[in-house]
Amino acid sequence: PGSVSAAFQEYLQHLGLQDFPCGFGSWNKSRCLDARRSPWAEPAALEETMPPGEETPEALLELLRDQHSPWALPLDCSPQERLLREVAVLAPELLHGSRVFQAVKSLRILDKGVEEVDEGLLRFQQLEELILSANHISRVTSAHLPRTLKVLELCCNAVDDLQDLCAQPPPELQHLGLGYNRLCGPSQEKHLTVDFWPNLVSLDLSFNNLTDLLELVSQVSTLQNLHILVLQGNPLALIPTYRGFLVDSLPKLSILDDIHIRPEEREQFHGLARQPELIRSEARVVVSIGEMKGLPNPEAFQQLEFGSEGPVIIYSYCVTYEF
């Protein structure tokens, strides 16, 4: 699709909100006769006013809910998808045309080839959750994000810079998911402060290329509401004192790398935050070679006597490790 708006149009076609048994049509013409009727009215009460030959709301809802029906949604569909389709039966006028944008509070577009977060998102004036994981997004312009947003998940994309995202971020955002992207330190930490994210509770930066632990902690420590932080998979997580330094530096943190911080762990690492000299930009990797096959035995060449007329062959080997 290219853009989020194009992907949403495909999503609407998948839901079929204007097709039988949803939407307007000969099967439920009376839906448009009284727009004041509540979409939550009991089907039994509506049945009394049905014109002859028109399907009852109860019968139409049964076509949506029965898993053996050809119009039923898959079992793993979201509660919002079920709700939208049922509203499209009971009160399709609420989802007609541009009104559908007012009814969507959660939008999940996964692995749809999306590359652009376009300004069409601003039509979702009630949107609170936006999940755009496993796409091809490299830049996010904050001016295109609804101000009502509380959850923004961009896992498994190609985001390598946060400047555009932080220009005008949603003020009420509580979760920001940027795991499995291309963020590189030490240039991105400056965008992770309370000035941009005053209400952030959860931050996922896992599996990027962040390297400066001291700078990251100095910025993230300004997030007064932060309780969940995920940094595993970054080079800085290889530092020997990594977890202890974070636990002591961020006293309000409850979960680090999906592991709860216990009181005894805080006591164990108490005072480590005041020893930044222990944070070194290095890591040690020990590699043990168990067995190598197909190489000549060097002991056979050590048995040659000094001054022997036989040829002397010297072998040298280079073992390369890629990380």
From TrEMBL:
GO CC terms, sorted: cytoplasm
Q: Which Gene3D superfamilies match?
A: Ribonuclease Inhibitor
**Which InterPro entries does UniProt cross-reference here?**
Leu-rich_rpt, LRR_dom_sf
Q: Which domain of life is it from?
A: Eukaryota
Q: Where is the signal peptide?
A: none
* Keyword Repeat attributed: yes
Q: Which UniProt keywords apply?
A: Leucine-rich repeat, Repeat
What name does the UniProt record give this protein? LRC43 protein
**What organism is this sequence from?**
Sylvia borin (Garden warbler)
